[in-house]
Amino acid sequence: MWLSNLLSRSTTRQPPQEAIQEEIKTENEAKLRAEDDSASDTESQSTPKASASVVALQVPELSLDENDKPAPSNTTSIASPIANNSSSLMPPPPPRTPASKPPSLKPISSTTQQLLGPPRLKTPAPLRTPPSAAASLRNPVGGLSTSTLAPAQRPSRKVVLGPGYSPLDWASLAKDPRNNLRGSGLPPTLIKVTPSMLKAHNGRKGADAWTSYNGKVYNITPYVPFHPGGKGELLRGAGKDSEKLFMETHPWVNWDGILGECLVGILVSENEIVETNALDAMD
Ligand code: HEM
């Protein structure tokens, strides 16, 4: 018994939306009756059709979505009062174009999301590898440099050169072969220099100062007053090989570019000179 009552209620009861529409429809009918007293009951039943013809002009203008389908006749009666009031207060909205839509409102398609890739992290710090143990031992000032050059922080040991002894003065002196920077008493060709010969030219007691570098022997005597590091520093290599001292101090300096005209000969062993002298004696 109660089950049959329940069934009969559920079949006769309208859904809530339809009930609301019916209620608004009734209100509209009452308004229309007030406006036109001559309207009959039959006409009031056809009111939705009459209001739809009026509202049909309003609804498309106020539509916020192009995809909106034309409202059915029973729902136009819902929008009709709003449409009448709004159209009298506001101008019609501008024609809708795709460019007028704010980009932020566009939903991101799944294809676009794939092209964009994964979202970026706010800070790259978590992706950095932790500093190695050796990093803590590096000089913080030059920590990013891998240069083998002398550190820029080292104090200069340059000396004040006398007037007329600048690098430019040396260059002008060296370009003239008549100055014979190799020294006096030498043949015009390069000679063979033994270690004993090199040692004898130590710059003392009036002797020229020779030094060797990369197997070649140079007379450094004329360059002494021009040496930016001073006389004493340069003469540390007098009578011996200077390659180690030179490379420790300023490996970036072009030795041959400065002392090319001071080249005396090539460094040879003591035995080679003895053999050469023996061959010369046989001739
Ligand atoms: C025993 C060998 C040598 C020693 C011990 C020596 C030492 C020095 C020293 C201490 C300085 C000053 C560096 C500074 O604090 O700026 C210097 C600068 C210089 N030396 Fe020597 N030197 C030697 C040989 C030579 C030779 C053979 C040449 C030329 C071929 C030369 C060319 C220069 C130049 C051009 C500078 C200036 C470098 C610069 O401006 O950065 N040196 N040298």
TrEMBL record:
GO terms for molecular function: cytochrome-b5 reductase activity, acting on NAD(P)H; heme binding; metal ion binding. GO terms for cellular component: cytoplasm. Residues 1-158 are annotated as: Disordered. SUPFAM superfamilies: Cytochrome b5-like heme/steroid binding domain (SSF55856). Residues 90-105 have a biased composition (Pro residues). Keywords: Heme, Iron, Metal-binding. Pfam families: Cyt-b5. Residues 1-15, 41-50 have a biased composition (Polar residues). The keyword Metal-binding applies. Residues 190-268 form the Cytochrome b5 heme-binding domain. Residues 22-36 have a biased composition (Basic and acidic residues). Residues 77-89 have a biased composition (Low complexity). InterPro entries: Cyt_B5-like_heme/steroid-bd, Cyt_B5-like_heme/steroid_sf, Cyt_B5_heme-BS, Cytochrome_b5/Flavoprotein_Rdt. Belongs to the cytochrome b5 family. This is Cytochrome b5 heme-binding domain-containing protein. It comes from Talaromyces atroroseus. The lineage of its organism: Eukaryota, Fungi, Dikarya, Ascomycota, Pezizomycotina.
